[in-house]
Design brief:
36% of the residues lie in helices and 24% in strands. It is an alpha/beta fold. The chain has two domains: 3-196 and 406-459, Zn peptidases (Aminopeptidase), CATH 3.40.630; 217-364, 2-Layer Sandwich (Alpha-Beta Plaits), CATH 3.30.70.360. A six-stranded mixed β-sheet has the order 1-2-6-3-7-17. Strands 16-9-8-18 form a four-stranded mixed β-sheet. A four-stranded antiparallel β-sheet has the order 12-14-10-15, with helices on one face. A hairpin with a 2-residue loop joins strand 1 and strand 2. Helix 13 (378-391) runs antiparallel to helix 15. The radius of gyration is 24 Å and the shape is globular.
Length: 466
């Protein structure tokens, strides 16, 4: 932090009302108060207020006793400001633990909601507001945890680092920039991400606790056909639209081969305990031997299909320039979600082979970010399993490979094993993140916050590899 910014932060902290320095000792009140403040700051990318949210958290951490020298607000531009805060452990301890969340949210329009999306409210056992679940609940959890540790005088055996990023919902450039340009601020033995994993409720009962240890890799291709066109009254056999459509038709019928990694094998093996008999048998067969028949039946479920293999799917089309002219250009976008260890060149070669038409030019929209799966380390997984058994008896801990993306993609790519343990249990048929009337259960949020408090304390008090 520059001397000017550091002086400005000291000025802001000095100007705080006296009441802020005496933080409440009631964890639930503290957590909900932080969540309320954050929800009411519009941190969508179009609003550009992530710096305001970062400053709000910084004020609370400083008031709790975190030195301002250990609180950094920084970013690659003025509209994308992240916060990095370090909680000091015993000198000479193990490498730090990185604790992740993001400040930004998906945009929300008041006319699309039942109420103002940036007005926090509690109703019928839920906290409502944009970001209440994705991911300001995670931000509030981490901030409240540091404050509680400071109040108690807890001294961990290693440093703890909070990183709150500014653009996870758009580019994730903030975490990429921090890992690449400010590695000393975020370097860690491993990371825990509030924005990955989570709990699954069925009929109100906790059934599955997901631990995200891998993510599929995003790679988009542009498919393009060009020709001379002509007058539509004189059709020609070489039509750009038809050629492109034929190639996409071949892609529609193609599936990549089944390939499991440590995470997905454990996913099917452990998920079997939560499924009906037929599905459970197929999951066990796939996990044990990659049984082709079992894989074929599981592939009829879109999510299981995505876990089993790399996927490529057409997502956009553009063609032609006039109603009465033959198309001179037809273009399609194909989005692939690759398994973590799939080489991009190999996926591109397979795609070209399936399309099987040299007139269809295939190019990458951008280079992918490879991200290896994190190992299922016993020193991390065992404390998670122990606390899940304590807090949600009967829930099965399941390693998960996300089909979407989080900031964890870039920490893994940077050599920091990352584990998504969001811990918030939700109904799988009522996920509202990114949607209308986003909410998080009051009970679920506070239980998750307590889980994080206990888990991080356990991991920060144990020798590495213990």
């Amino acid at each position: 932090m520059s001397p000017v910014l550091r002086s400005a932060l000291r000025f802001v902290l000095a100007a705080l009302p006296a009441t802020l320095s005496a933080q409440t000792t009631d964890p639930r009140a503290l957590e909900s108060d932080i969540l309320k403040e954050l929800v009411e700051i519009n941190t969508s990318d179009s609003a550009g207020h992530t710096a305001d949210a970062a400053k709000a958290v910084a004020r609370r951490l400083a008031a709790a006793g975190i030195p301002d020298s250990d609180i950094r607000i920084l970013g690659y531009d003025a509209s994308h400001q992240s916060l990095v805060a370090r909680y000091r452990g015993r000198p000479g301890g193990a490498k730090p633990i990185l604790l992740m969340a993001h400040l930004d949210v998906v945009d929300a329009r008041k006319e699309d909601w039942s109420f103002d999306p940036f007005q926090f409210r509690e109703l019928d056992g839920y906290y409502y507001g944009r970001g209440s679940s994705d991911n300001k609940a995670g931000v509030a959890t981490l901030a409240a945890m540091f404050i509680r540790y400071k109040q108690e005088g807890f001294v961990p055996d290693r440093d703890l680092i909070i990183v709150l990023t500014a653009d996870e919902e758009t580019t994730s450039n903030s975490i990429k920039w921090l890992v690449g340009e400010h590695r000393d601020l975020v370097d860690a033995d491993f990371a825990l991400n509030t924005d990955g994993g989570g709990g699954e409720l069925r009929d109100g009962k906790p059934v599955v606790f997901d631990v995200q240890t891998a993510e599929k890799v995003f790679l988009t291709f542009n498919l393009e056909v060009r020709n001379k066109g002509g007058h539509s009254s004189v059709p020609e056999p070489d039509n750009a639209i038809y050629r492109l459509a034929a190639g996409l038709g071949r892609l529609e019928k193609f599936t990549f081969p089944v390939r499991l990694n440590q995470t997905t094998r454990a996913f099917f093996q452990r998920s079997a305990a939560t499924q009906p008999t037929r599905i459970a048998a197929d999951m066990r067969a796939v996990a044990k031997s990659g049984d082709a028949g079992a894989a074929r039946r599981l592939s009829t479920v879109p999510y299981y299909n995505s876990v089993l293999r790399t996927t490529c799917v057409a997502t956009r089309l553009f063609a032609g320039h006039a109603d009465n002219a033959l198309p001179q250009l037809a273009r399609a976008t194909v989005n692939c979600r690759m398994l973590p260890d799939d080489p991009a060149d190999q996926v591109e070669a397979v795609l070209k082979g399936v399309i099987a038409d040299p007139a269809i030019h295939v190019s990458r929209a951008a280079q992918p970010t490879p991200s290896p799966a994190s190992p299922l380390r016993p020193d991390i997984m065992q404390p998670i399993e122990r606390l899940v058994a304590r807090d949600w008896p009967g829930a099965v801990v399941v390693p998960e490979m996300s089909t979407g993306a989080t900031d964890g993609l870039h920490t893994r790519n940077g050599g920091i094993p990352t584990y998504g343990v969001g811990a918030i249990f939700e109904r799988i048929d009522d996920i509202r993140a990114h949607g209308r009337d986003e909410r998080v259960g009051v009970k679920a949020f506070h239980e998750a916050s307590q889980f994080w408090y206990d888990l991080v304390k356990a991991l920060a008090s144990a020798a590495p590899g213990a």
